[in-house]
Amino acid sequence: DAGITQSPRHKVTETGTPVTLRCHQTENHRYMYWYRQDPGHGLRLIHYSYGVKDTDKGEVSDGYSVSRSKTEDFLLTLESATSSQTSVYFCAISRTGNEAFFGQGTRLTVV
Amino acid sequence: KQEVTQIPAALSVPEGENLVLNCSFTDSAIYNLQWFRQDPGKGLTSLLLIQSSQREQTSGRLNASLDKSSGRSTLYIAASQPGDSATYLCAVLSTDTGNQFYFGTGTSLTVIP
């Protein structure tokens, strides 16, 4: 794996609670991404970052926020989790923005 | 918006067979196309990256081709092995959306010993 660690790997949470997922990289890559993977939809981009404190929305950003205070860490926060946010979340990194390398994923269940 | 389609959704072949996986995309204005492998419960492993100016890339038994004008890419796997069983995903990086990769839903490959 390309020096990417996602934590936690599994989480079960209740509807309405806040949840933060962490992505940590050791590659010093500029770009970091959060995707979600759902059956029938493939992977869809939630948010991405192109540098410290520089972030932008992807196609499914509603209900999610991100922060990147250090090059190595990219946090994804669900402010108030809903059942529709039950999914597998993947972090990816890229040095130039042209090729992506993925973490092992976080399986989130909202009950 | 770029749409990426992979057909078939599932494929089962006997060991040793050569096979082709297909990926099509609706907008030919792309920077590159990347093929990934995903094992059950795991992350995505990058297999091959084809830049928009390239026609193909090879790595071992894998060969990926790109025809931008027709919006198609194929992943050729030679002499398939049971260890090749996985889901194969393609992703395109479109020029109009900067850093957003668009993914297909994948082809689930089973190689039967």
Give start-end ranges of low-pLDDT stretches of chain A. none
Helix content of chain B: under 10%
Count of DSSP H/I helices of chain A: 0
Order of SSEs of chain B:
EEEEEEEEEEE
Structural class of the secondary structure composition of chain A?
mainly beta
Biggest contact = A-B, 27 and 25 residues
Number of DSSP strands of chain A? 11
Largest sheet report of chain A: 7 strands, mixed
Describe this protein's structure:
The complex is a heterodimer of chains A (about 110) and B (about 110). Chain A is built from no helices and 11 strands. By secondary structure, chain A is mainly beta. In chain A, strands 2, 4, 5, 6, 9, 10 and 11 form a 7-stranded mixed β-sheet that branches. A 4-stranded antiparallel β-sheet of chain A has the order 1-3-8-7, with no helix packed on it. Chain A starts with a strand and ends with a strand. By secondary structure, chain B is an all-beta fold. Chain B has strands spanning about 5, 10-15, 20-25, 30-40, 45-50, 55-60, 60-65, 70-75, 85-95, 100-105, 105-110. In chain B, the strands form 2 sheets. In chain B, strands 2, 4, 5, 9, 10 and 11 form a 6-stranded mixed β-sheet that branches. Chain B is globular. In chain B, about 35% of the residues are buried. The chains are: A mainly beta (about 110), B mainly beta (about 110). The interface of A and B includes residues 33, 42, 101 and 104 of A.
Write the layout of secondary structure elements.
The complex is a heterodimer of chains A (111) and B (113).
Chain A (H helix, E strand, L loop, with lengths): L3 E4 L2 E4 L5 E7 L5 E8 L3 E10 L2 E4 L6 E7 L2 E6 L8 E8 L6 E2 L3 E5 L1
Parallel strand pairs in A: 2-11
Antiparallel strand pairs in A: 1-3, 3-8, 4-5, 4-9, 5-6, 7-8, 9-10, 9-11
Chain B lengths: L3 E4 L2 E5 L4 E7 L4 E9 L5 E8 L4 E4 L2 E6 L4 E6 L8 E9 L6 E3 L3 E6 L1
Parallel strand pairs in B: 2-11
Antiparallel strand pairs in B: 1-3, 3-8, 4-5, 4-9, 6-7, 7-8, 9-10, 9-11
